[in-house]
Amino acid sequence: MGMERKQLNDRERIEAVLEILKKQAPLTVKQEKFCNDACVERFLRARGDSLKKAAKQLRAALSWRESIGIDHLIADELAAELAGGLAYVAGHDDEARPVMVFRIKQDYTKINSQKSFVRLLVFTLEVAISSMSRFVDQFVILFDASLFRSAPAFLNLLMGTLKIIFDYYPGRLHKAFVVDPPSLFSYLWKGVRPFVELSVVTAVVSSLDFDDSIEDAAFASCRTRAASLRFDPVVAATARLGGSTSSRFSFTVSHLDSLKPWYLSTTTRATPRAVMPTASPSLVGASPLNARSFSFASPAARYTPRASRSIPSTPCSFPPLKHPNQQQQQTPRTPRPSFLQSPATLFTFWKEGQAVVSRGERERESFLPFLRFYRRPYDEMAYRSKMRSPLGGLRTQTLSY
């Protein structure tokens, strides 16, 4: 049986699964429309290309859809949930995948039955699937867990949702993010994670780590740059008076005097000073054009080697030059711990020339493209515009006219 399965191509495997379904019970028109080639391929991949297992799961999915009544599910039945924004399609990501946001409150599970939540979940999934383009077959889910106070209650809700997606929507979930869960949720999730089928594509993140996002930082830098280029009358008045607010030089001249350095000034002072300092013989005979360059350093500081020179008083914008005979001092490298010293190193993933990236950092980086959907306010009219008939109901069909 295994050799025959390997020899079958994709089309033959799809036809074999459909034949098994028709032998069990004839398919209706809607069921045949649901069991297209892409749907059967997803069920085959979920069951390891096993024809019998894929046919069994597909038959269970068809029976479940009939019990839920998906063909008769419309938006008018969930008017209160849609008005409150409990579950909706926020938009599409860069890969044209629909992004769903679930903001279920803890009181909702107490007031409403489990069947009501399942119908709300299925309705949101069907709206997301109907809004997909031709070459897209996956979606993204964002769970806002900040509205839950009990970690076990939210864990039950999350596991039930992932169970429905795995059993009846195989291969559809691209990524699921749990945002701001209760404090004890991380400990409970670590315990049940190995037993959840879709735990590999489920990540737990915190929205507090993205307060200063890249887009906000870029906007702030542009705003600061624009503010620095504005016209300031105080600065302009200071420039007309000839003032300087530099931390290195400070001088002020009047309107009648020209801007000249101290060594070129021709005005008389109360205490006469020599134009050229006598302590620097190298400045004797210097012309006014090059005297300014010689006045910033003494002869001793100019001719001493750079290796023994102290830090200059004037800040320098370029690093100091190294002496050719001076050897660069290398800091000793920290040795990598062995397995005998730390057995935990066996379970870490080392990369050549790179630091070890934890799972939390990878999850935060993967959530960054979907942060805008999480922070975007809910718009009921925009969400209803994504609904296609008959999911939109009578109200949406009226608005479409």
TrEMBL record:
Cite the CRAL-TRIO domain residue spans from the record: 74-249
**Annotated spans, Disordered:** 305-338
Q: Pfam families attached here?
A: CRAL_TRIO
Gene3D superfamilies recorded: CRAL-TRIO lipid binding domain (3.40.525.10)
Regions of compositional bias (Low complexity) in chain numbering: 326-337
Name of the protein described by the UniProt record: CRAL-TRIO domain-containing protein
Query: What is the protein's species of origin?
Result: Ensete ventricosum
